[in-house]
């Protein structure tokens, strides 16, 4: 049996494993357990992203503190708006055109942060 699975196409083997897991979930009626695990994983994912952003900020905070007040307010304001936008999307959801607005806010804030970062790192003549 081991040789059979060893020679099997890896994609097919993976699909069979996923189908087996889905069958176990359906037979044992574990849908509510999966929804709880999904919620916990999404919270853990948000916390991991938050921790990563904090580490990056902590590494660069002295450099950002040397920027002008306008650049700092724009940079931190855009970051706060992204965090708020993601929080509202996670809490309330965003059906239809609200999803387009969600993506638009993130893109506009990211462009604003990138422009401030670029302007503060431009060493002109």
Give a verbal description of the structure.
The protein has 125 residues and is an all-alpha fold. The protein is elongated and about 70 Å long. It contains 5 helices and no strands. It folds into 2 domains: 1-60, no CATH class; 67-125.
* DSSP, total strands: 0
Category from helices, strands and their pairing: mainly alpha
How can the largest sheet be summarized? none
Instruction: Tell the overall outline.
Output: elongated
What low-confidence regions span 5 or more consecutive residues with pLDDT below 50?
none
Termini, distance in Å? 71 Å
Strand content: under 5%
Overall average pLDDT: 88
Helix content: over 70%
Number of helices: 5
Supply Rg: 23 Å
Number of domains: 2
Task: Briefly summarize what is shown.
This protein is mostly helical and 125 residues long. It has 5 helices and no strands.
Give the helix/strand layout.
Layout: H1 2-7, H2 10-27, H3 31-65, H4 69-92, H5 97-120
